[in-house]
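Task: sequence design from structure.
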């Protein structure tokens, strides 16, 4: 399970003065997950700064993707016709969270579609963090079986609801960080009910199960371990991601060229 250590005081300090009062439960959970992934990935967005510094410094909105944060990372040049592995190397790296999540699914004998879903479920956070399950599903939808994109779309909502049949419990960290009265907003509850009644429910649920195993400090997994699974279940466009005329080509081009002004 997750072993990234979260200091409640430091985490809350990163949110900003007065921001907590305006955040709903989903906002808080999203911010916590982004914070944990940033700790694991080694991204420093000023985590742990005292709250009074927030008043003196202009920061990117919380929902801004990793590639657009002022983090000092070098934006490397990608191939002319980039494929998925190129994005893991040049834009998603180190991608420890999704690699660990997929590795757990693989080592516990779960279907290859679940492994790939775990490998992909959070990569869109490099582009945008707001409502990332829906953005993430849209990003990959033309290239995978619908059960993979559907599962990614609903995994965010399912985090809030236990399922004893697969051993998924309500995250204790939510109680420790936000208190016992933490309640998801109605639209999240509606998404949960919709997902619970859907034929692909368990595909999405298993993403949440493996998600909890993607926060192990000091564990690195090689993307090459999943190359064969990607080859079998990812419909790679010959023109390269961003240049195949798909409805999401612009999203992949944005990931490839985040400094393009227009």
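Answer:
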């Amino acid at each position: 399970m997750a072993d990234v250590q979260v200091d409640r005081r430091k985490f809350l300090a990163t949110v900003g003065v007065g921001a907590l009062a305006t955040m709903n439960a989903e906002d808080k959970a999203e911010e916590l997950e982004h914070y944990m992934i940033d700790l694991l990935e080694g991204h420093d967005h000023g985590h742990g700064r005292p709250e009074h510094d927030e008043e003196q410094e202009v920061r990117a909105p919380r929902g801004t993707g990793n590639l657009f944060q002022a983090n000092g990372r070098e934006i490397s040049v990608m191939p002319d016709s980039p494929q998925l592995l190129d994005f893991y190397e040049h834009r998603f790296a180190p991608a420890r969270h999704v690699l660990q999540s997929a590795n757990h699914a693989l080592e516990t004998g779960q279907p290859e579609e679940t492994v790939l879903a775990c490998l992909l479920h959070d990569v869109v956070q490099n582009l945008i963090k707001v409502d990332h399950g829906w953005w993430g599903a849209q990003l990959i939808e033309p290239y995978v079986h619908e059960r993979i994109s559907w599962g990614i779309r609903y995994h965010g909502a399912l985090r809030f609801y236990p399922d004893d049949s697969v051993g998924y419990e309500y995250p204790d960290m939510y109680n420790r960080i936000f208190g016992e009265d933490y309640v998801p907003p109605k639209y999240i509850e509606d998404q949960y009910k919709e997902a619970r009644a859907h034929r692909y429910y368990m595909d999405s649920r298993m993403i949440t199960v493996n998600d909890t195993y993607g926060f192990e400090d000091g564990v690195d997994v090689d993307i090459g371990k999943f190359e064969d699974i990607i080859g079998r279940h990812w419909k790679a466009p010959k023109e390269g991601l961003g240049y195949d005329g798909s409805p999401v080509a612009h999203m992949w081009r944005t990931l490839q060229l985040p400094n393009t002004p227009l």
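Residues 25-41 form the longest helix (17 residues).
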